[in-house]
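Incident review: delayed structure delivery

Summary: a single-chain prediction request sat in the queue longer than the usual turnaround. Root cause was a stuck worker, restarted by the on-call engineer. No data loss occurred. The affected request and its eventual output are reproduced below so the record is complete for anyone auditing the incident later.

Affected input:
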Amino acid sequence: MELSKTNIQNMLKHGVVNVKFTKTDGSERDMKCTLMDELIKPHEKKTDREKKENDNVVSVWDVEKEGWRSFRYDSIISINK
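Output delivered after worker restart:
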């Protein structure tokens, strides 16, 4: 079953999701991540640099490393709650 970007975003906004994906260096990574506001720690912006939007990439909060991480939608191997 292939999930749409919208479905993946909804899963992330409503809980902690286990995502297995291929990193850009070719290695695989398992990550517990979310977009739930109550689980994301406040972020102090250190530069004025603006990050360009990329519709192929999703930025998420890694609940184990307590930081922002990202992965490409097309690199997902598996995803589940």
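Verification: Residues 45 and 51 are 12 Å apart (CA to CA).
Action items: add queue-age alerting; document worker restart procedure.
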